Sigma-54 factor interaction domain-containing protein (Desulfosarcina alkanivorans), 610 residues
Amino acid sequence: MKEETTNGTIHSAGQRQECLPEKASCRPLSVSSAPNALAERIKELNCLYGISNLFENQDVSLSWIMQRAVELIPAAWQYPENACARIRLDGHEYTSKRFTATRWRQNTKIILNGNDVGDVDVYYIDAPPVVDGGPFLEEEDHLLRAIGERLSKVLWLKRSEEALRESEERYRVLTEQVAEGVALVQSERFSYVNPEFCKMFDIPSAQEMVDGLVRCPPAGDADGIARIYGSRAHGVIESKVEEVHCLTRAERTSWIQVCHSPITFKGRPALLSTLKDVTEIKEQQMAAQRKADLLNDENRVLRSSLKERYRLGDILGRSPAMQAVYELILKAAATDASVAIFGESGSGKELVAHAIHDHSARKNNRFVAVNCGAVQESLFEREFFGHRKGAFSSADTDSPGYLDMADGGTLFLDEIGELTVNMQAKLLRAIEGGGYRPVGNMEPRLTDFRVISASNAALHDKVNEGEMRNDFFYRIQVVQIQLPPLRNRKQDIPLLVEHFLRTMKTRSATATVPGRIMDILIAYDWPGNVRELRNVLQRYVTLGHLEFLSPDPEAEMVPIATDLNLRDAVRRLEKAHISKALSRSSGNRTRAAALLGISRRALFRKMSTS
Ligand SMILES: Nc1ncnc2c1ncn2[C@@H]1O[C@H](COP(=O)(O)OP(=O)(O)OP(=O)(O)O)[C@@H](O)[C@H]1O
């Protein structure tokens, strides 16, 4: 311990040293060492306390703190007037008054996260008395170390504060730019809301909300805010929750999707909420749901009324294969997806398409059936897209195309495999919402129609042979329905026979056929399917006996009048020949064309001109 004497010398740890002659700062004389020791201790504490206090000042820079700290240090040393100090940190140097680097130096390090990042030096400006073998006291060594530690702590706090401020700033910039509402709630009070949040709840400025109680917001739509926070306002932190709230304000209903995430902010629990206005999506969903509910209700009624399920609309059949078809029809009717129906000629593809339309939300609009086999390439746009008056010489009036007619309804494309690749490309654009232009009109048109198509054969071969575009192929057959041929569901024959006889108004009261006739009908192979069955029954009702397709077409040649010129005679013969072939094939145009030895397209052309 050091001791001071009345004659101006200092005692330290039993050694006497001369006081510096010109230094008036030698310790004041005292009668006992205890108060002096106390005074020294107070000086030390003042210094440490002063350094700690510097950090309490808000919004001060690290340089400001270091400069003030370095100025506080000399006063705590034994000879304050002879002492000076320096702090070096991050390439900066902070010095006390009269700083002079001499050989009487004392040093400690400033450490940050285990790294040596700076140091603190104390110097005596002039030679000090030697005490305990050195100019500095042991207590001063301790004090300097304590100062170094305190400055290390101040530095760490300041850096953390800066990092936090930076991340807060980043977060603020981010949240102010996002299109979603963001709010931070701590202890039932808003600490932050972004501009989008203010917009959602009619709050004039975000500033008004800061520190406002969640239960009783100082501005904006208090009810809406209270509904969103509910019991969560108590700082109860749950795991991340997402919910959609319906807010009704002044005749306006909006739907807000809220995601609450519990976080720790500035060491305390907080609730970070992001809010998104989903009114538009929600309304669309509700409209779709209403539609689906309606259809489901109708379908439920329909299903329950079809206990035996022997028919759906005009389609008859109680076989398991037809039950599966009914199920698909109802499913397809509940969606707006494109449907492709496959099946042999006369098996009821058009009936199925009608049933889908009649059970869908489009049922009150038109069902437009187009036989693609009869569409000529050159007339495609005219027929599908319509034309304007004057677009070509015979266009006396504006005329709608199939797509106009099917607006809001269904476009049934029968024999879809007959469309050329060119036609497919034009149609695909319109189906995919790209619109179309009526002939002679520059204005593009958009209509809303659902496509149902039918084909006798699978379309893969057409794709493989390059006759059908891949994209068109996939676009038209989102839902596929395969119709079974009549020969594979013979248990439906008695039901169909009874139905056709009843509709044909037979003279006999009982709409049945004798058992042996029924046996023949069941045994037959029905290449022309239900259509052929209907035609055979028609002939049976008219002629009183069964007559299937004649195996020998030559036996039924038509007599030609002798007064006709050759061209007309050929025409009449051709016409008779075509209708005979059609009758033999029970209306199946593919088979009729095959019987005649011409292409289907040629047959369609002849049918439309004759
Ligand atoms: N399951 C059925 N129940 C009642 N009638 C049916 C049934 N299937 C077909 N028909 C009748 O058979 C005839 C042919 O039906 P439809 O025109 O729907 O067949 P399609 O498969 O489209 O024939 P195509 O391929 O030749 O155009 C229609 O008169 C129809 O009423």
About this structure: Confidence is low (pLDDT under 50) at residues 1-32, 550-557. The first strand starts at residue 2 and ends at 4. The pocket of adenosine-5'-triphosphate is lined by residues 314-317, 343, 345-351, 414, 454, 456, 530-531, 534, 588 (CB under 6 Å). The chain has four domains: 2-160, 178-277, 308-484, 545-609.
